[in-house]
Structures are given as C-alpha cells and as structure tokens.
Amino acid sequence: METNPLKITELVLRDAHQSLLATRMKTEDMLPIAEKLDQVGFFSLEMWGGATFDTCIRFLNEDPWERARVLKKKMPKTPFQMLLRGQNAVGYRHYADDIVERFVKQSVEVGINIFRIFDALNDFRNIETAVNTVKKCGETVEGCISYTVSPVHNMDLYIKMGKDLESMGSDILCIKDMAGLLTPDVTKMLITELKKNIKLPIHLHTHATTGLVGMNMQCAIDAGVDMVDTAISTLSMGTSHYATECIVAALKGTPRDTGLDLNLLEEINDYFKEVKKNYSEFESDFKGVDINILKSQIPGGMISNMENQLKEQNSIDKLEEVLKEVPRVRKDMGYPPLVTPTSQIVGSQATLNVLTGERYKIITKETRQCVMGNYGRLPAPIDEELLTKVAGDKKVTDCRPADLLEPEWEGVCKELGDKYTSEEDRLTYALFEKVALKFFETRGKPLPEKPVAAKSTPASSPAGKAPAAAQGGSSIYQVRVNGKDFTVEVAMGGSGTMAPAPAAAPAAAPAPAAPTGGGGSPLTAPLPGSIFSMKCNVGDAVNEGDTVLVMESMKMESEVKAHQAGTIQSILVKEGDNVQTGDQLVIIG
Questions:
Q1: Model pLDDT, residue 301
Q2: Which of 293, 374, 385, 521 could covalently link to 369 via disulfide, CB atoms 3.0 to 4.6 Å apart?
C-alpha cells in the first residue's frame, strides 16, 4: 500500500488561543509542555505572528522576541512557523521596506523557520519584500491565498493567485480560510484544481466556526492536500480549528496515516485542559456552531473582540445588528477578504455605524486609508457615496502603497537615541510606537495582581473619577465576576456608607455634563477608547468639522471633530487617557 502521510501543523501556541482566549496565553504556560510538543513530530508548530506580538507588549508585559527564543531552546527539532501580514509585518499599517526586511531577518534570528505570508486584499505586491527577504535568509515561504466568498471571487481567480504565488518563489501554497467559509464541495474542487495547475505542496488553514470543518478536512485529504492546521482538542472547535487528535485517529491505518502518537497527544491535551482554566475571563461566549458566519464572514478571532468592544459600550445587545452591518460595509468597501487588518477595519467601522446610529458618521483613519488604496488594490469597485465622502477630489493610490513610504529605520534610531539600542527593541518600537514605550517602562516588573473575586468600575463615568450619583443617592457600577460583566446599582446607606440597592438596575445613560469654562460647549467622546493624539491647544480657533484630537478604539484610530466653531477654551484630557462615551474632552467657546 502506497502511503502519503498527512502533515500536521499544530496551532495551540498561536491561532488556537488567539481565536478562543483573546491571545492571552502567557509564555510561562507554554514552557512546561514544550518538550512534549517537540517530541510529537509535527510538520511545524505555529507559535508567533498574528496578534501575539501586540498582545505580549500591550497586555502581558512580555517580550515577544524572548518568547520565541526560550521556546526554541525547549523545542529544537520542530520547525517554528509564524503568520506574517506582508507589508504590515505584525502591525496594522504598511511599514517601509527597511522595517519589513529587518523584521524578517530578526525573526529568523530568534528561530522562525516557516513564514506564512499573506496580504489581506490578496494584493501580492504587498508581500514581495517579505517573500524576497525570507528567501535570502534561506528559510521557507508559505504564500497565502486569503479565501473569501463574493461576487468577484471565483475558482479561476484562485488558480491565478496560486500560479502567481508559485512564480514569486513560494515553497508552499496555503489556502487561508480564516472565517471558515469553505464548504465540502468547494474544498474538494479548490484543492483538486490547484493540484492540477501548480507543483507546490498545499497547506489548508480553516476554522471550525460554521461547523463544516470535519467534512471540509476529509474532502481536502481525499483531494490530496499535503498539510493541514489543527489545534489540540481542549483549544479546538468553536471559533478555533479542528482537533488534532480527531485527524490523527481518523487516518490511523490509512494511506494518509499521520504517524503521530495519540497517547502523547492525550498527555499534551491534559496539560492544556488545566492551563485553559487560567484564562476563563477571556473566553468568548461563542462556543458552538454558527452557519450565519457564511453570511457575515467574520473570522474566528474577531467575534470575541467585537463582543468586548460592545461590552465596553454597554451595548452587547447590538451584536446582531453589528453582524448584519459587517457585510454591508464590506460590500461598500469593494469586498475585501475579512482577515487582519481588513477584518478589524470593516468590523470597527460596522460597529461605529451601529453605535452612532448613522452610517459613516465617524469614519476611522484606517477605513479612509483602505478606501484611498493605501492598503492595496481592493477586489471590486467602492461604493460611490463612500468614495466621495472619503476621497473628495483626491486621487486614489494605484501603485504599490509601500512605494510611497520613505525608509523609516533611521528615524526610529534617531527617536530612540541611546535609550533602547537593541535591534529587537527598535523593531518593537517601529511597529507599535506608543504601546512599545509603555512596555519598555514596565518590562521585567510584575504587573499588579487582579482582584480574585470581583472588580467594580463605575459604569459610564470618566476614567479615574467617582461615578455620578444615580437618582435617590445611588450609583451604577459595572462588576466583573468570574469573567462575566454585571451592572448593579449601589445605594447610599443612612450613615453615608454604600449599601446594596434592592435590585440590579440597567446601566444608566451618562448624563450630559454641565459645560465648564466660561459658558463654552463641551465636545464629548463619541465612543470608548484612549486619547491617541491631541491636534489642538488652548486658544486655538477651530471651525466646525476640524479635527481636534484622535482617539484609539478597537485598535483603530478615529478623528474627533469640533461640533461647533469657536475657540478652544480648555482641554480636559491628555494623550494616553482612557475615556468612555460621553466624557468631556475639550471645551469650545
């Protein structure tokens, strides 16, 4: 019997926990099982890229470069794989070629062997620099087709993409089905046709969100797929991936037998079963099957993010409305595939459209950049009304966007001076400037411990201020218990101490704050987030519609514009402050 073992890429250290646990798994929870993972004989282990870099420095106080280094020491045999967003590297904008080249070289230095490289728009001009640099470093390029469904995406287009990636120098072709949109028949046809037309090994990456993943996997295997992505069972299914053990068990004794040891996989799974308990607060409420994803096309890691964004707004009840708005925004923007960063761009814009009650009342900086062609060529024409609103009479970019960027490395070195001089720190800063500087200050120091039982924060009140008293001497609080949010009303007792109100009450809408500063009118935050940059000073004259500051929310930047003409009388926030919807930002008189 002729055998053709199916190769397995294990995702437990990256996409599995990114999809299920908001990417929060710490390196300390990976190291104890690393040697066992190394013994399995996986084709590769995906453990870097995607959102891990951002999450390490933003939330975990961990150095992502060090994570790769220490894991490699424990796992010298198994090739390490990362997800690289082409010209975006692991960030959310296009970086100059010199940054991308240095990032790839340093990634090789810390142990990355296989680079899965994609562009969110399938504009392969945006992956040329990354592909060429990986080839120069002597490592493996896995060129990606970002799979999506739309009126302009079809089999002929995907075959052309496969040929293009082969001619660019890819060593492996990856079908990246980030939202789990494949169906069994399409999977079989796609693998079969690509096999006929290109000579590269084919690697399938797909999510379990729609519940079709097992059938899709079997169809891919029957059609001769060479490698598949799976996740150890504890961190599989839902918005994650098919279970590693299921594939191994299903193929035992067949010509595609993986040769992997189920007993060893069981030991590894037992370990992660315990680890998962540490991250219960980050688990998405989505744990089953949602066939409606075939309509909204929202990828695995995006659903839990949307839930969190809406919870911050006390608007989780609007989730269904947002899910319906996503495909409308996607159509308006020319049917981009929904994968980072376009998934965040489209998802955040859809969320803003719903929360503000008016489509495109606030347009994020990233939506504007995407519509203007600065992320690359969109697959289909953009809605005329949206294009006019964003572009006006400006010309849309039609060249490779990175051709418009000046080299950045020299400026990074100048800005940091002699403070952070290592290649890795400078790259971290180049990719995530403000987040990196905060991280450098806290690196190596223990983060404050979280309260064990419950943490209460004022609902709908400015950061750092006491909650406004609700009617009758009570206050509204958001309380988190075991990872779940509850809104409670706390009433004042007769002695001036807090006493529980008779019953939980719905969160009150923030009351309009009285203007301060000489009768001026307050400009308030249109959404929750942080102050990214100030664009005005006290005494500046502004016209209605002028940008006075930029907020960062949902990893996107949104310009906040003056609601009236006048003079900036006072500024009530500074860069880095966290604010809630309705908080006063500046006073215009």
A1: 58
A2: 374
Contacts of 298 (CB under 8 A, 6+ apart): 179, 306, 323, 326, 338, 343, 347
Task: Give the sheet arrangement for strand 498-500, strand by strand.
Answer: 454-458, 474-481, 484-492, 498-500
Interatomic CA distance for residues 565 and 323, integer angstroms: 36
| Cα–Cα dist 38/40, whole Å | 6
How many Å is the maximal CA-CA distance in the chain?
Answer: 88
In angstroms, rounded to a whole number, what is the distance separating the alpha carbons of residues 162 and 180? 19
Nearest to 330 by CA among 348, 313, 304: 348
| CA 534 to chain CA centroid, nearest Å | 25
pLDDT value, residue 474: 41
Helix, coil or strand: residue 501: coil
46: which 2 tokens?
């995906």
Q: Which amino acid is at 17?
A: H
Comparing CA positions, the residue from 352, 310, 323 lying closest to residue 485 is 310
pLDDT (0 to 100) of residue 450: 56
Residue 114's pLDDT is 98
- 8-state DSSP, 59: I
CA atoms within 13 A on the CB side of 371: 27
Residue 549 · residue 533 · CB < 8 Å: yes
| pLDDT at residue 312 in the model | 72
- Please tell me the distance from the alpha carbon of residue 11 to that of residue 80, in angstroms, as a whole number: 11
Phi, psi at residue 95, to the nearest 5°?
-105, 155
Report the pLDDT value the prediction gives residue 449, as an integer from 0 to 100: 65
Tell me how far apart the alpha carbons of residues 255 and 99 are, in angstroms, rounded to a whole number: 45
> For residue 288, what pLDDT is reported?
80
pLDDT value of position 1? 62
Cα–chain center distance at 280: 19
Q: Contact at 8 Å (CB) between 384 and 334?
A: no
3-state secondary structure of 172: strand
Q: Which two tokens stand for residue 2?
A: 């002729």
Among 471, 457, 491, 483, smallest CA distance to 580 is for 457
Residue 256 CB neighbour total at 10 angstroms: 17
Q: Which residues of 321-352 are buried (b: 16+ CB within 10 A; e: fewer)?
A: ebbebbbebbebbbbbbbbbbbbbbbbbbbbb
Distance (Å, rounded) from C-alpha 560 to C-alpha 532? Answer: 11
Rounded CA separation 290/93 (Å): 31
User: In the block, which residue shows the tokens 């969109």?
Assistant: 378
Q: What is the pLDDT of residue 518?
A: 53
Name the nearest CA neighbour of 203 among 234, 165, 229: 229
Quick one: DSSP state of residue 511? P
Using DSSP, state whether 351 is helix, strand or coil.
helix
Query: Taking the model in full, what pTM does it have?
Result: 0.80
Q: Amino acid identity, residue 171?
A: D
Distance of CA 261 to CAs 30, 161, 343, Å? 20, 36, 37
The rounded distance, in Å, linking the Cα atoms of 431 and 439 is 13
**SS3 of residue 578 by DSSP:** strand
Please give the Cα distance from 261 to 245 (Å, whole number): 9
Where the chain has pLDDT below 50, the residues are: 451-517
Burial class (CB in 10 A: 0-12, 13-18, 19+), 442: exposed
Are 83 and 229 in contact, with CB atoms under 8 Å apart?
A: no
- What is the three-class DSSP state of 307? helix
